[in-house]
Amino acid sequence: MTAQILHPEAWKPARGCADGMAAQGRRVRTGGLIGRNAGCEFETDGFVGQIEPTLHTIVTVLAKTGGRPGHPGRLIEVTAVIPD
Fold it and tell me: Are strands 19-23 and 3-6 parallel, antiparallel or unpaired?
C-alpha cells in the first residue's frame, strides 16, 4: 500500500503529526490539525476564534486529494481544555 502525505506546499513543515494521509481506496485521515494559519502561527488565543482556521485547515488538506466540503465524510473533534 502506498500512502500520500497531504501537506500544502505553501505551509511551513508540520510539527508532530499535523498532516493528513491518503492511502489506497482514498480513505483520508488527518490528525493534529488545529487553529494555526499556513505559517504555523495562532492568530488568537481563544477557543472560538480558532474554530474557523481549523476548519479552513481541514478543507485545505482535503483539497490535496480533490476532496471538497460537500463530499461524504465524518468529522470527529476531540477537544481538551487543560486549566493552568
Answer: antiparallel
